[in-house]
Amino acid sequence: MPPTDWSIDGLLEDTQKLLKSYVKDVVKTYGNKLEGIILYGSAVRGEFLPGLSNLNVLLILPSYDLSVLKQYDSLHKRWGKERVVVPLFLTTADLKSASAAFPLEYQDILDCHRLLWGQDPFVGLKVDARYLAAEVVQGLRGNLLRLRQRLVEGRSTEEAIAILLPLSITALLPVLRGLQRLLHRPVVAQGEPLLNDIESHLGIDLSGLRDTLALKRGHISPGQKEIPRLMDRYLESLSRLVTTAEARLT
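Structure (tokenized):
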């Protein structure tokens, strides 16, 4: 596939041009060592927010020894400034063998990704979901525990809360898609419909999560007095979700 012979629906033209320049740089850097470049995350799900969202990529290489990884140094120096995060480096063998260890992440990418260059290693891939329930429970509980810890580290200031809430909800959404799979629900890619479906199916109030998603997307701007209240509502909703999901899955 030529480095620029594609278009992604819903992604701004400027962002697509940036991605195409990135692909050319990666192909130039790795040459015939490179097997594929995969885009995943919000840019593929139609939820990319220019200036706020990261561009998530996966590079397929035959190996990833130190010399291969060091080749990316100059790319990161340039493209990290454009919100292209350090990619996942995988071999095709890794993808097949590690999917059992990380079924949540691999299934999420498998369901929603875009080939930018080379061969798509996800074609025909079957993700081993034996440990999906354990990973989902761990993801839910771990999110809550880390949030409490980071709140204390940030002294629970309004500034810390405004940073932590979007980070927490961003990490939570793929876990909720995993929960949908376990509940035998149709998997919803986008955040608000996803939260609505989980809320309706489990019969619990997740308004704190929805309000935090609105904050992340810039739809609401709580003041200094309201942002701690939003954190309280978020913690309440997240705790309720964790308890209910654990009861259903364990």
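The longest strand covers residues 113-118. The radius of gyration is 19 Å.
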